[in-house]
């Protein structure tokens, strides 16, 4: 079992920050989808040059690089459980940016995810 007291603040930032960056990327993908044209050469070219999509891809890439460095110090079985946080972060960000509703079912589900994360790692 991993001793969490040995994790540095930087590792904690990576364990929590990477799922947050992935969640933010999903919000940016949704924003991109609202301006996406048809599935044609012109539409794909326009999509490829979309600054929101480029930002999302950079965010995903940065998150991936940070994740690689987290995995140098944290076992994959421990680290990957933190990716469940994306299921908590995405709906909150969707509510903030798109006004999508949050329900009691979401809150219960998010609490279960966090409880599962704690069960796996504590």
How would you sum up this structure, described in words?
The chain is flat, with a radius of gyration of 17 Å. The longest helix is centred in the first third of the chain and has 25 residues, at 9-33. The chain has one domain (4-121). The chain has six helices and no strands. The N and C termini lie close together (9 Å). It has 122 residues and is mainly α. Helices cover 75% and strands 0% of the residues.
Task: Spell out the key features of this protein.
122 residues, mainly alpha, 0% strand, flat
Structure classification: mainly alpha
Strand percentage lies at under 5%
- Which regions are unreliable across 5 or more consecutive residues at pLDDT < 50? none
Number of domains: 1
In DSSP terms (H or I, runs of 4 or more residues), the helix count works out at 6
Q: What's the SSE pattern?
A: HHHHHH
Q: Count the strands?
A: 0
Beginning-to-end CA distance, first to last residue: 9 Å
Q: Which term fits the overall shape?
A: flat
Largest sheet: none
The radius of gyration computed from the alpha-carbon positions, rounded to a whole number of angstroms, is 17 Å
Helix content: over 70%
- The residue-averaged pLDDT reads 90
